Amino acid sequence: MALPTLNKQLQASGISRRTFLKFCATTASLLALPQSAVADLATALGNARRPSVIWLPFQECTGCTEAILRSHAPTLESLIFDHISLDYQHTIMAAAGEQAEDARRAAMKAHKGQYLLLVDGSVPMGNPGYSTISGMSNVDMLRESAKDAAGIIAIGTCASFGGIPKANPNPTGAVAVSDIITDKPIVNISGCPPLPIAITAVLVHYLTFKRFPDLDALQRPLAFFGETIHDRCYRRPFFEQRKFAKSFDDEGAKNGWCLFELGCKGPETFNACATVKWNQGTSFPIESGHPCLGCSEPDFWDKGSFYQALGPWERYKSKPGKGAQKHAGKNS
Amino acid sequence: MTEELIFMTSNAEKTGNVMPLLHQIRHALSQLIERQEQTTIDLRRLPLSASEEAQLEAFLGHGEVKADIQALGDTVLIESRYAGVWLEIHYNEDVEIMGKYVHICTCPPIIKSQPEDMVLSLSNIVSDIHSLSHQSSDETAKED
């Protein structure tokens, strides 16, 4: 049975075309598409069929799910979350146990080769018993669900790179999704938690263009991970002037100076927090006076103290081309 | 006035992108006049500090038209004091800015009624007129 188009669903929900165009304009902006592409985006996305999505939560803290589900309600982004057919997510679905697993297998069968697989959490390889769902190990469930998926979106740093479960000494033998599945297009939307709008935008891109957006070498969408936090940080001018906070309560901190010497990992962290922000656009960690922890980078937990400077200032001073170019060059 | 607006901020808050942006707007406006070519500049994709964004908006100012659209959060359209140069700001329902653009055009596309919405409107107006006419007939019958 063909699932309805987005246009049909929007009409049924009383969403006007103008509202949809507004959504398309803002999403095009997030995906770094030219505004001249908005009309085409609206046509293609409007005619896209409702996609079946299977979402597997593995070794995770539910922070990623919380970030997405509690992000903004209801908003333009929720148009897309309302639009997808979320056929399995055991944290939030009403069904449980075998009933839930039957729903997953039924969706896989009905939409073979067409469904999208979302994964949050890392996969324990040390002992299958560390994390199971309905008696099935995470790795077996991942392999079974990935087999007929059109593509995989790894949500959060745990699914993307192993995250905190993988931190030294990695007691469960945690690995990333891409360590196990190597024959499917995979997008990593890292972050602890990831930016919800990045997930929406990737879904929109996939529905519109039938492929994932351009990715960096770590398989993250360049539109969100093409620049460092430092590149777009409003405190950057203070960094260039070597005006630093030396403690959390000194004059520098009160003046809003750069947090580099307090351990900010912004210069080596690729993410869009500085522009997209958190908590309904209120702020991002640096704006709240705390250094960036670098949570969207691999092994961020094992890179030394969060409060130790990355290195000498000279190493990070205005390096044109260190941003997108460093990781660019790999498409899905 | 222009120089005062551009150079009033401290060096710490300057990317230096305001003046090039204003020249881009000037060039786009001349293209609109000569070739009817529309341009949209996405301000969220440009490195501008908050104070520079404020300078840009102050420079553009307000012209004769301001429109508010309610579409899952407000959208504000302001024709600047330079006819043909519009500022468009999209908010979501949490009043978070989702998009900010400078349009150089005669009328930003989002303000126009959309064909799909008009088709639905026609069906609604037919139904509403039908209801009204039934209501009127019922009232007339009661009076008789």
UniProtKB/TrEMBL annotation, chain A:
InterPro entries the record matches: Cytochrome-c3_hydrogenase_C, NADH_UbQ_OxRdtase-like_20kDa, NiFe-Hase_small_C_sf, NiFe_Hase_small_N_sf, NiFe_hydrogenase_ssu, TAT_signal, TAT_signal_bac_arc
Intracellular or extracellular location(s): Cell envelope
GO biological process: anaerobic respiration
Ranges for domain Cytochrome-c3 hydrogenase C-terminal: 225-306
Domain NADH:ubiquinone oxidoreductase-like 20kDa subunit positions: 61-205
Gene Ontology cellular-component annotations: [Ni-Fe] hydrogenase complex; cell envelope; ferredoxin hydrogenase complex; membrane
Membership in a protein family: Belongs to the [NiFe]/[NiFeSe] hydrogenase small subunit family.
Identification of the protein by name: hydrogenase (acceptor)
Organism from which the protein derives: Paraglaciecola mesophila KMM 241
From TrEMBL, chain B:
Protein name: HupH hydrogenase expression, C-terminal conserved region family protein
Lineage, opening ranks: Bacteria, Pseudomonadati, Pseudomonadota, Gammaproteobacteria, Alteromonadales
Family the UniProt entry places it in: Belongs to the HupH/HyaF family.
Domain HupH hydrogenase expression protein C-terminal: 17-124
